[in-house]
Amino acid sequence: MTVSAEPRPRAVAKTRSRAQTGRGARRSAGPFTYVVLTMLAIFALGPIVLFLFNALKTTNEYATSALSLPTTWQWGNFLEAWQTANMGAGLANSLIIVVGTVVLTCFVAGCAAYALARLEIHGANGFISYVLIVSSLPGQMFLVPLFATWTKLGLYDTQLGLIIIYCGLFSPFATLLLRSFMIGIPKEFEEAARVDGANELQLLFRIVLPNAWPGFLTIALTTGLSAYNEFLFAVTFIQNPQRQPVSLAFFTFQQGFTQNYNLISAAGVIMILPMLVLFLLLQRRFIDGIAASGLGGS
Length: 298
Known about the structure:
It is a multi-pass membrane protein. The protein is mainly alpha-helical.
């Protein structure tokens, strides 16, 4: 007795109807999805585009209408804002602070996440709860004790002191994010390496870290953006104009040129442009990293 490999007509009909139903559902949801995404894009990009248009206007055009297109494109506003606001020095200082913060945060968070994900530590769950609580506290709570401590240690008005503060602010979230990555790495890789005689440091640098690089890229991007945009701790702990990041350079320029809004807009565009380009280049990696960590929802 032979069994026919041909599918039953009724089963085929049900499969086709389900497939057609699924395609129809996707078609019906398409226009609504595009409308929502378009509205979100306008909401996100609208202020930036308006900011750019105002940076290209003359003072009279801006005074006439802040919402219209520029009639004459004043590209010289960017050069004048760059020179007057000392944006070059501010961007260089921000680069030092961002790179130092990213490197130190990745090192601290990587070691802590590896210990929580792979080593048998007594009280690890309590430490994770502590990290969750600390990451939810506002940073303003620590301004006064940090100011007193940093003054005694000689770290006040130094970029190193600001980098250490940023590392303390961003490490809790980075640790939790990296821990979720490392938990997802199969332990069979490490067991095979242990059979070959690898120690814990070799497992960390040759097995775990290479497989967790999407997580490191994600926390590097989020930490870099946060350190670049942070203002409160920067204005509190950096007073020397030669060490100020670009956020403080822009703030100082804005206070001194309150009536020249087109130059202020040009300086603002210069400030946001590096991080905007960096995020656009790495957005796919960033989204993939968030999704792989399990923090992006189901």
